[in-house]
Structures are given as structure tokens and as C-alpha cells.
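Session log. Operator J.P. requested a structure for one protein chain; no other inputs attached. Running the standard single-chain path with C-alpha cell output.
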Amino acid sequence: MKLSLTILITVLALTSALYSEFEIDLESGFVFTGYNDIRIPGDEGTLFSLKDDLETDPAPFARARLNYHFNARHHLSLLYAPLELEATGTLDKAIEYQDETFAAGTRLKSIYKFNSYRFTYRYDFVRKENLSFGMGFTAKIRDAIISLENDDMKAEKKNVGFVPIVNFRLVWQMNDPLSVIFEGDALAAPQGRAEDVALSMNYNITEKAGLRLGYRLLEGGADNDEVYTFSLFHYAVIGVSYRF
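Structure written below.
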């Protein structure tokens, strides 16, 4: 058993030495709210929308990912994906939120923060000259805060948790500089769901540098006694990547 493990580790080390490279991937653009419905506590609070009841303006965003490709088919990555949006407005109804009561007719402000930290492993099952497809697993840490305040009081709900998600990536190489990329993390369960998927067109500026334009969808939420929150966000994306 020890000999087999030693052989396996040796083979992986040798193949990694034959093919391995790092990649930095930066993404930015603007994020738009599709819907963002909240009720906290989930069984007793007042249901309200940060899209329909309050107004959330489009906001700039930025993401950063570090990739490590080894043995041609194996991929590791670390992703930092912060998201923070501000909503404001006046409601014609009282809001019960996080054990506080916000009276009708008062000016309200809400901060919706959903920061994501992810570690991903993916294996390419298909790797051809013009097509590749891989699947793997993502370990996601979410750091979320939803606050609501007026001139007299403030209430907020914090949540930090771990979520395992399925990762996938499909690349179609249309010609030498152009490729279409469909990738993301997604999982649904009785406790809730989470999807973060993107469709983009990539242009290889050089052998190591790429530029892409695309669309990203972020959707998900949970429904339980503690929280009811479901949201959908649309992203207009521009990204750059560099391998070294």
C-alpha cells in the first residue's frame, strides 16, 4: 500500500513538472438586480424587495481568480468574488426585520453584501483540439450581510457558511484567436440553491494573454425559519487573463 502510494505521488509530481502553469484572471463590469426578496426571520418577518419596494442602482464590481493548471487536464483555482449593493426608498407599509419594526413612510437604506471565497478542483474529461469540457467541485465560503436602517435604528443579519458546489467549464475554440466559454458553479438542494454561471467570448491577444466579454448570472437563496432570501443578479462582464 505504501509502495503504491509512493508510486502515485511520484507519477503526479513528474507529470506536473511536464505541464504546469499559473494564470491570473481579473473580471469587472456592472451588476444589475433582477430580483432580491427578503424576509428575516424567515417565518415571522415582513417580506420586502430590494428591487421593487426599494431601489437598487446598477453598481460596478470586480473579481479576482488565481488558476493553477497541471498535467494538462487538472485545474485548481482560488476565487475572491465580492458583491455589495445599496438600496434606498420609502415603503408604504411597516417592516418587521431582525426583531426591529421600521414604520411605514420612513426613508430606508439597505446594504446587501454577499462576498464569496471559493476553492475549486476540476478535471477535463474531454480535451480535443477545438473542444474541452471539465467538471469538478467547489468549496465555497459565503460572507453575507443584509442591513436595514433609517434615521432612528439599524438592524442587520450576518451569515457566514460553507457550501459545496459542482463546477463545470466548456470551451469551444471557434478559430485561432476566438473561443466561446460557458462555465460556472451550481447546486440545488432542499435547503436552498446557488448558481453562478457565465457565457463569454474570449479573444487571445497573445499565446498567454486573453480578453473576454460576456454575461454572468448569479442566483440563489434559502427558505427556512431563520431567513427567507432569494436573489438574481445580471452581470455585464469584461475580463482579462494572463498565463505564466
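Operator note: The two ends are 37 Å apart (CA to CA).
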